[in-house]
Write a structure and sequence with these properties.
Elements: H1 4-27, H2 31-39, H3 44-49, H4 56-80, H5 84-87
Helix pairs in contact: 2-4
Length: about 90
């Protein structure tokens, strides 16, 4: 029987997956590179797809990595004069 906590966890993980998938498409970053750079685990996304449950700490690291990487790319684009649209 599914509990309210299970349902909330599944909703959260689906939302996170959506953000991760969008990030990968936006940056063309390979999944193994993403996992290694986000949480030092190149198998992260494969394990997540295999229904590995994430801790809140890991989810926060993933979110922080995506935010920081986007900012880094935007800053790089400004410095190189290519514009933020091309930074992705």
């Amino acid at each position: 029987m599914e509990t309210a906590d299970d349902s909330l966890t599944q909703t959260f993980e689906r939302a996170l997956w959506g953000r991760v998938d969008a990030f990968l498409a936006e940056t063309a970053m390979p999944p193994g590179v993403f996992g290694k750079r986000a949480v030092n685990d190149s198998n992260l996304l494969g394990q997540m797809r295999g229904k590995r449950s994430l801790t809140l700490r890991t989810a926060r690291k993933i979110e922080a990595f995506m935010r920081e990487e986007r900012a880094r790319r935007a800053s790089e684009a400004v410095r190189s004069g290519t514009g933020a649209a091309e930074a992705a």
